[in-house]
Design goal:
globular, three-stranded antiparallel sheet, alpha+beta, GIY-YIG endonuclease, single chain, 3 helices, 3 strands, 101 residues
């Protein structure tokens, strides 16, 4: 129960440009971010908001997926987020559902 959901916002905006799951200081870390994320931060600034705390991993990943679907992704032409994939969620789902040979 140490996971949280965070959002990155452009300064003076109430619309997020990134949604993520984190532990510890992940929401405030600028390493391992996409080039598009870095360009947004350079151009518009950054405000970090913790949206939900004290979640288990499965719940956090489910909420992240819902929020990404709600706000939509720029690279899919569906919204405002620079999230490039939902790969963290897919990896977890695939890992649990794969059959052993």
């Amino acid at each position: 129960m140490n996971y949280y959901i965070y959002a990155h916002y452009i300064l003076n905006s109430d619309i997020p440009f990134y949604i993520g799951v984190g532990t510890k200081l992940r929401a405030y870390d600028s390493k391992k971010r996409s080039i598009l994320w870095k360009r947004y931060v350079e151009k518009y600034g950054l405000v970090v908001k913790i949206l939900q705390e004290n979640l288990d991993k499965e719940t956090a990943m489910s909420v992240e997926k819902e929020l990404i679907q709600k706000y939509g992704r720029i690279n899919k032409g569906t919204g405002t987020l620079v999230n490039l994939t939902e790969i963290k969620y897919r990896k977890e789902t695939l890992g649990r559902n794969q059959k052993k040979n």
